[in-house]
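Reader question, answered in our methods column.
A reader sent in the components of a multi-part assembly and asked whether the whole thing could be modeled at once rather than chain by chain. We filled in our standard form and ran it. Here is what they sent:
COMPLEX SIZE: four components
ENTRIES:
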Amino acid sequence: MANKDWKTFMIPYEQAVEELKVKLRAIRTEYRRKNDYSPIEFITGRVKEISSMLEKANKFEIPHDRLAMELEDIAGIRIMCQFVDDIETVVNILRSRQDMKILYEKDYITNVKPSGYRSYHMIIQYPVNMASGVVNIIAEIQIRTLAMNFWAVTEHSLNYKYKQSIPENIKSKLKEAAESAYQLDQTMLDIKDEIKDAQKLFEVKSAI
Amino acid sequence: MANKDWKTFMIPYEQAVEELKVKLRAIRTEYRRKNDYSPIEFITGRVKEISSMLEKANKFEIPHDRLAMELEDIAGIRIMCQFVDDIETVVNILRSRQDMKILYEKDYITNVKPSGYRSYHMIIQYPVNMASGVVNIIAEIQIRTLAMNFWAVTEHSLNYKYKQSIPENIKSKLKEAAESAYQLDQTMLDIKDEIKDAQKLFEVKSAI
Amino acid sequence: MANKDWKTFMIPYEQAVEELKVKLRAIRTEYRRKNDYSPIEFITGRVKEISSMLEKANKFEIPHDRLAMELEDIAGIRIMCQFVDDIETVVNILRSRQDMKILYEKDYITNVKPSGYRSYHMIIQYPVNMASGVVNIIAEIQIRTLAMNFWAVTEHSLNYKYKQSIPENIKSKLKEAAESAYQLDQTMLDIKDEIKDAQKLFEVKSAI
Amino acid sequence: MANKDWKTFMIPYEQAVEELKVKLRAIRTEYRRKNDYSPIEFITGRVKEISSMLEKANKFEIPHDRLAMELEDIAGIRIMCQFVDDIETVVNILRSRQDMKILYEKDYITNVKPSGYRSYHMIIQYPVNMASGVVNIIAEIQIRTLAMNFWAVTEHSLNYKYKQSIPENIKSKLKEAAESAYQLDQTMLDIKDEIKDAQKLFEVKSAI
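And here is the structure of the entire assembly that came back:
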C-alpha cells in the first residue's frame, strides 16, 4: 500500500480520536459545571505514527489487511485521574456509555506489570460516521493516575531510546521510581479517605 | 429556574454543538484528504444565549419545562457550501448518518421566504452521552451557500438592531441584496456546470 | 534541501500563523465583549504547502536560500469583513499594532485586478520567538468582504484546476460573477449607511 | 465596578493567556519537530475567576484600581517538565525571549515552602495589542515537574475545601506525599543522568 493509501486508512482513526477527546472532556466539564469533584483531571489522544504502525506489523508478522483487527492502539486515548479510586469511577462511566462498545479490559493496576507499569486499559469498538458510511474502528483507552502517567511516560521514552532493551541498572532505577510513584498514590489515597471522613463528620454535625 | 440551573440545562446542548462541529468538519477533511472536491466549505456552531432563549420563550408563551421540545435552535450548526447544488449533496450525507435522527426538513431554497431568506434547514434529534446517561436533544442544522450566508448574517444583525421591525426602505434594499446574492449563486452554478462539462470532455478525450 | 529540512524551515511560519490567528481573533472578541459592532467577521490562516512553495520557486527561478525574502505568502492570514468600509477600519487597526511591522500594502479594491479580483493586502514582518532566538518572517494578510472572498475562493479553485489558464468562456462568467459580488457589496454598503443615518436621527431625537 | 466592567477588565488577561499558551506550546513543537528532547511536557493556562479575584482583593484590602498592579496571578500559565533539571532549561529559554519582560522570579525549588510546595515562578510583564492600543499586563508563569504539579494540584483542592486551614493530620499526610513526590523526582533525575552517561559512552564508541 502506498503512503497515500495509509493516510486514507488513518482517516477514521484520526476522526475517532478527535470525537472521543471532545466527548470525554465533556465529562469533566459536566462535573465541574455542577460544582462536583471531577474524577477526570485531563485527557490526551493520538493516532499511531504510520511508520511505527508498519514497524510493529513487521515485527509481529501481521499482514497489512489484518492491521485494523490486530492492532488495538492505532487510535489511543489517555485519561488522567487525581486519585487511584477515581479510575474505577471513570471505568464505570465508560461502561455505561451507549456510543461505544467495550470489547475487553486489562487491569494492570491489580496485576502490575513486572516492569512496574500500572494502568487500566479498555479496548473499545467505536463507530465513525464517514461520508461513505459507518466504519467501526478499534481504539484503546488508558486510564491512570497522574503518578502512573508520569512513570509510564518516562518508561516509554527510555524504551524508545533503548529499543525495548533498557539496561539492567536503569531498569532497577525505574522499578524504584515505580515504587515511589505507588507510594505517592497511596499517600494521596489516604488523604482522600480522610477528606471523605471529615466531610461525613461535618454532615452529621450539620444534621443535629 | 435560577441562572445556575439554566447553565446546567445548557450542558448537553453545548456538548452537542462541540461534537457536531468535530464530526461534520471531518467530512470536509475526508474529501480533501482524498483530493476530492468537498461539498462543505466551512462550518460554524453556537448555542443560543440563555437570555435570548428566555426572551423567545416569553414572546411565544412557551412554559419553561417545554423549551427543550419547542425551541429547535437552542443548539445550532451552520454548514456553508461553495455552490448551490452542494447543498443537496450535504443533505444526502446527513440523511445517511447513523448518529443522528432527522425529525423534519425545511427547504427555504425552493420556497424562498418573503424577506429574501434562502437556506436549507434540518431539525435533528441527537443523543448526547452524559456522565448520568443519554440525553436526546433537538438541534437545527442550516445549510447554505456563502452568498446565502452573507445575506442572512446581515439580515440577522438588522433584525437584532430593529427588534424584528426593519424599516420599509431598508427592507427593500435587503431584497435587492438578496437578488444580487441569488444572481451570484446562479452565475457560479453556471460555471460549475461548465467545469463539469469541461471535465467530461477531457475524460472522453482521454478514453479515445 | 531534504524534506526534513523544509519541515524545519516551515516551523516559524506555522508558529506565526497560529499566533496571528489568536491575536487577530481577539480583536473581534474585544468588540463583541463590549457589545460593539465588530469590523471583523471571521479569520482564517494557513501556511503554503511545501510542494507548491517549491513549484512557485521553480517557476519564478527563485534560489532556495532567497525563498524567505522573495515569497511573501508562505504564511498567510485572511480577514473577512461584513461591509466594504470595515476593511479600512481593519487596515487602520493593523497599522497601529506594535507587534508587527508593515512592509507595504496592495490595494486591489481601488485597483481591481483585470480578472475581477478585489482584496486589500498587507505584507508584514513579524518576529517569532523560537527556542533558539527571534526569527523575523514575512507574512501576507488579505482583508476582504465575504462577497470578495466567495469570488476569490472560486477563482482560486478554477486556477488550480486549469493550472492558471482558465478557458475564455469561464473567464467571462467569472467576471460576471465578480460584478454580482460587487453589486452585492454596494447594496450592503447602502444599507449600512442607512443604518448609520437611522441611528444618528435617533440620537438627535434623544438629545431633545 | 459592575460585573460587565469586570468582564471588560479581564479581556487583555484572557488574551495574554491565549497568546502565551500558543507561543510556549510552540517551543515543545520546535524541539519535537527537530527530533530533540523537549524540556516541556505540557502547558496549561487560565485566568482567575472574577469572584475569587474580588475575594482576594477584599481579604488583602487591595483597592480595585490597584488590582492590575498588585495581583500577579490574574493571568496564569503553568509549564510542566519531565525532569527537575528541565526547569532550568525552560527558565533560560523564557529569560531570552524578547516578547515579555521578566519582573522577578521566585525559586520555591531551592527554597521549598513549609507546606512542601515546590515550583519555580516567573512574574512577567506582557504587552497585549488591543484594538484600542497596547496594554501591559502582569502574568505569572509557574514551572514544575509532573510530580510537583501532582502534589500542588491536590494541595490546592484541599486548601479550597478547608478554606486555607487544612487540619493538622491531613497537613502531615500532605508533607509525606510531598516527600514521595520529591523522591520520585530524584530517582527520575538519577535515571536522566544515567541516560546521558549511556549516550556519552555510545558516542565515544562510535567515534573510534
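What stands out: The first strand of chain C starts at residue 42 and ends at 47. Chain C has one domain: 3-151.
Send us your own complexes using the same form.
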